[in-house]
Please model this.
Amino acid sequence: MAKTPYLINVPASAIDACPAEQCVRHFFCFPALNSGGSKGAAEMPKKRINVYIDGFNLYHSTLQHTHPDCRWLNLLELSKRLINPETEEIQTVYYFSALTTWIPERAKKHLLYIHALRTVGVKDILGKFSMRERKCPLCTGRYLAHEEKKTDINIAITLLGDAVADKFDTALILSGDSDLAPVTTKLKQLCPDKKIGIIVPKGQSAMHLKQHADFFKKIQTKDLKKSLLPEQVTYNGKIITAPAGWLPQKDTVSAKVSVSDK
Model:
């Protein structure tokens, strides 16, 4: 492959000292071929990866019943296990969810987890629940139930905003929710050079999402087991302990992490 020459200046003293008659003050120099082992050779920049995690989709499909002892999950570490560290690097990991405020004890544990995620740099974006009338399929009676709102919208707004602002090369969407399929389609229309990968939670197929993606991966149990937060972390000067049952009893991590939320 031909190399483009570049022009350099030669000091007059060097020209005077050279016996060759054809020496000139300017000459062309061709870049050396990369042998593959030379130090200082220019390296290709790594691909920037952003991760968008649908918290409730992950929880209900994978963590709640199948792997309850992995609920103290380090989403940054899990994300790192989904990429090739030699050619890719994580930029931002987003966690989208909402607090069940009408069940105080559950909301308290969830908030502890959100604070623990902040100690490793995960960005949480929270929606809310609202009341919605539903129809019983058995008795056809109607009743009110809580329904999570804004998560899909928050994912869409954040994903498209990051794409237009050129904050990533590849977006990993951890969800099996088919409602996000139109978002991936729109992203491809706005930024066709951006890649989309779907991370499929256990127990889901994500068929519609995969149809609009460049590739997909399945979450593996081994990655969950190796991506747990320490049992205790320090957040804003206070120690947070994982709720009972959120970590494996025999493999509880004892290291501590400290951070200030600023």
